[in-house]
Structures are given as structure tokens and as C-alpha cells.
Amino acid sequence: MVFTWLPDWKHNQAMDVNLDTGKLIVFLGGLFLMLLIETFAPARGWQTGRLKRLLFHGSIALVNTVLIRLLVYVPLLLWIVRVEQEGWGLSRWLGLTGYTELLVSVIVLDLFDYFWHRANHRVPLLWRFHKTHHTDPGMDVTTALRFHPGELVISALVKALWIVLWGPTVIAWFVFECLVSFSAQFHHANIDFSDSIETDLSKIIVTPRYHASHHAVDRSYGDANFSTILSCWDRLFGSYNRPASAAATAWTEGSLGLPEAPLKPFSFQSWLFDPVNKSNLSLSRAGSRSGKGKIKY
């Protein structure tokens, strides 16, 4: 990891390699760890073969990685460096440095991510892309790979705005991105904790049981619980809504996904072209929190 920045392309190239290596280690380490735990202690039965899920979602991740690398990765990286060098952003104006800046930046960026995730469920255009993630009829660590490239490109543009508004250091951004990656793998994993551990842990971070309710077919739960790392944001901003028992949304067959899921949830054609499907032209929030009525997606 490189901590100082020089206007030298060779230095920037070295920084690029170091960041890539660090993120790759976190990504692969988290993926293999969750796959291992799921193998020996799954919370739910497997409705679809694990190999099929891994190959499909792994292929999606490969396509997304190539596209994002070609389209936005380098420009976003250079933008982060530029913002830090120029001293732009609220964190710089507040004079935050060192570990204080690192901690506060991760918390603030996680808050931004909460609002961005919520917007993906509220803005029709954004939902058309994000819906792909929720069409998985099951949920395990590979679901964390299930995103449409359009959502990732739009997200990168929005993150560029976060960066200039807050002004995190490069290392703070790197830590945040790694935490988001590992948190997504963790809370999508097909694992669970005892009720006593779950009660305490979910007050601090998003747990697999906490996030499973967000993927529930019952949209009174699925259209809530938008936090990514810290779970406090849902309580603070009125989007917390969890069932009394995990079995109500995640332990029965057909309880995960969307009410109107695609006929072929593991079709590459469906994954790629679903955002232009006419059924995604509108998003109704009627009954989203009360459970009265049905949300149409």
C-alpha cells in the first residue's frame, strides 16, 4: 500500500497495483470464508444447485469486473487522488486527519451508501437496474455478485460526487470499499447466529438474518432495511422493519426474491435485458411499510 502521492505516472501505476492487490485479497478471502461456512453450517436449504449459482454469479462478476475496469475504475481512482491533493471536501475543511479521518470517513460514506441504496428502491430508473439483484430466488454469498453493470456504472458516477463532497483520503476510501465488499459477502451469506448473538450483533452491524429480510418476497420487509455496514441508519431514518422471527421471511421455500420474479432467474439474457423490460417502467410504494396492499415492481 502506498500512502504518499507523487505526480509521477510510475508512482500512480504502483499505487494502482497495490490497491488492486489489497482489494483482491479482501474479496477472495471473504468469498472463500463465507463459502466454507455455508458448506458446513447453512441456515437454509439449497433450492438451486450451489455450483450453478456459483458459476452464474461468478460469470456476472467477471463481466462486471472487466466492464468497470475499462469504463470507470481508473478515472475514479485518479479523481480520488486529485480530490485529496487539492484538499477538497468537508473532511478537509474540518481538518480531520489520521485515524480520526479514517473512522469518520468510513461512517459518513456508509451513511451515503445507505441513502444511495434507498434511492435504488425509490427512483424508478435506478430500480430497473437494482431489481436484478433482488430477482435471486435464494440468497447466499454469491448473491453479493449479482448486479447489473448499468447499476455499477451509475453508482461509480454517484460515488465520484461523494468523494468531492466529503473528501476522504485514498486510504480511507480503500478501507471503506473493502468493508463494503466484505460486509456484502457476510450479510448475503447463507449463515445465521443464535438468537442471543443475533440480537446484540444486529444492533451494530448488518447481519445475514437482518439482510435476509431485505430480500424477502413480503415487500413490507423487503422494501426496508437498507443499511450496508452499520445497522443504525435504518433506525435513525425510519426504514427499520424486521419480522419477529427469521422464519417469517427467510426460512421457508419461496420466501426470498420478488413477488414477480423472472421465469429464468439464472438466464444471462434476463439478467442483461431486464432493465429495459416494460414491466420495470414504474415503482409503486403503496403499502410498503404497513404491509397493506401489494407493491408493484
Give structural notes.
The protein has 297 residues and is mainly α. It has 12 helices and no strands. It has one domain. The N terminus and C terminus are likely disordered.
How do you describe this structure in short?
With 297 residues, the protein is mainly alpha-helical. It has helices spanning 9-40, 50-86, 90-93, 98-122, 124-134, 149-166, 170-188, 195-201, 208-214, 219-222, 232-236, 268-273.
What's the average pLDDT? 86
Give the fraction of residues assigned to helices: 55-70%
> Measured on Cα atoms, how large is the radius of gyration?
19 Å
The proportion of strand residues reads: under 5%
Number of strands: 0
Spans with pLDDT under 50 lasting ≥5 residues? 1-14, 283-297
Q: Assign an overall shape.
A: globular
Task: Give a topology summary.
Elements: H1 9-40, H2 50-86, H3 90-93, H4 98-122, H5 124-134, H6 149-166, H7 170-188, H8 195-201, H9 208-214, H10 219-222, H11 232-236, H12 268-273
Helix pairs in contact: 1-7, 2-6, 4-5, 4-6, 4-7
